[in-house]
Fold each of these.
Amino acid sequence: MGFFSYWLRGILFLTLLVTFSFAGNALSFDGSVEVITHPGVNSNYLSKNLLRSIFGMRLRTWQDGLPVRVFVLPDDAPLHSTFTKQKLNIFPYQLRSAWDRMVYSGTGQAPFVVHTEEEMRARIASTPGAIGYLSGSMINDSVQVVHIDE
């Protein structure tokens, strides 16, 4: 192989390296995750235990009788992992295991899965009784931020 072939491989390698580093940055977020609800939900503060009951699909209605509608990102989404670890103090696989037990035993249902934060925000904003989470940079006036008491 001549010099030109090695040079071409080097350029290809650097191009791929730069491409994947930018793709990785596009999938990351600022590290903060906030619990959000539909603006009509009357709970601005939730305890960590209540939040676990909601996302564990054990709490089915809000205090005013409105059905709770839980929205989550896919299990492998970085924000989902951050949410479960920071806000619920459990691992994503533990949450999935609880949902699967309820679904397969016929005692409950799994949450609604959305594929992007934009979809999460839109679904929460348009669904009465909805709850979910977003990175801090994705929050706007269409949703309500809920504070979690330790």
Amino acid sequence: MPKITVYSNRWCPYCRRAKMLLEHKGVSFDEIDVEAVTGARQEMIRLSGRTSVPQIFINTLHVGGCDDLYALEQQGKLDPLLAG
């Protein structure tokens, strides 16, 4: 199984939507709340080059945000990434 990391916050609807898709896929993921964890937002920006949440990583691959995750799903490219 790949290591999945989701940078998010509690109130973001796009974060909830992205996590719902990952949960539907039956994969576990680490969630880092950028408002609760000191330095997490800066780390996310450094790794992704983006300031908005969610930002999703599969292993070391930055797949982007919620819309990017759903685009991968629609293109049939998400399952191979999740399979490792």
Amino acid sequence: MPDRNPVRLIKKYPNRRLYDTRTSSHITLSDIRKLVVEQEPFQVVDAKTGEDLTRSILLQIIQEAESDGEPIFSSDMLRGIIRFYGPFQGMLGSYLENSIKAVADIQAQAGQQSSQAWSDFMSSQLPMMQKLMGQYVEQSKQLYLNTQNLFGMFPGFPGATGRNDKNGKDDDKA
């Protein structure tokens, strides 16, 4: 009888082993990565508590992939992501999610082309994309700095410079 649940259930046991309930067999992180690549819906849960561990397992897969070969995330990029946790967390998460979705949509549209043609296209577009991303980063940086300067006009506001006398001198005594 076919499994009626479209989401594949993977159970994680205290010994850190993963068990695929659909195939009734133990699997590895590599197997879960294949499920992601094949766009197979799945959920990883703690076998004892039922707690959803899917995000944690996906982060583990990313960590392993970043350790092997050429990483996607540079140290500076990871530092930037860490800095965004807090007030801009939702905005960055939404931006990254939409950006990755856009790249995936482009790949799906180009899926009929051979991998070599796609590779040639991307390599020819790389300089333009780098220039556009550089411009975007610079604009984002300027927007952030302008926002900080705006808040600096209000003494006592978090991030304010503390300058508020007529001569532009600090009110704070060091």
